[in-house]
Write a structure and sequence with these properties.
The chain is of the alpha+beta class and 73 residues long. A 4-stranded antiparallel sheet has the order 1-2-3-4, with no helix packed on it.
Length: 73
C-alpha cells in the first residue's frame, strides 16, 4: 500500500499533469502522470534520482530560454 506524501495537479495547455510523491515499503518515489483526452501515461522516479531529474529539467529550461532569446533577436 502506497502512502501519499504530496499530491499536486497542474494544467498546461490541454494537458493535465499529476505529481504524486508516495512511499511504500520499497522506498519513496515520484509518480508523474500526463492526461490528454482521457489517455494517461505515467513515469515513476525513485526519490534517489529526484536531484538528477531536477538538474536535467533545469538544463532543458535554460536551453529553451537560450533558444527563445536567439529566435527573438
Amino acid at each position: 500500500m502506497d502512502t501519499v506524501l504530496l499530491s499536486e495537479r497542474i494544467q498546461i495547455e490541454r494537458k493535465q499533469f499529476f505529481f504524486d510523491l508516495k512511499e511504500n515499503p520499497r522506498g519513496r518515489f515520484l509518480r508523474i502522470t500526463e492526461e490528454v483526452g482521457g489517455r494517461r501515461d505515467t513515469i515513476i522516479i525513485p526519490s534517489t534520482g529526484l536531484d538528477l531529474f531536477l538538474t536535467t529539467v533545469e538544463r532543458a529550461i535554460e536551453a529553451d530560454k537560450g533558444r527563445n532569446e536567439t529566435a527573438s533577436a
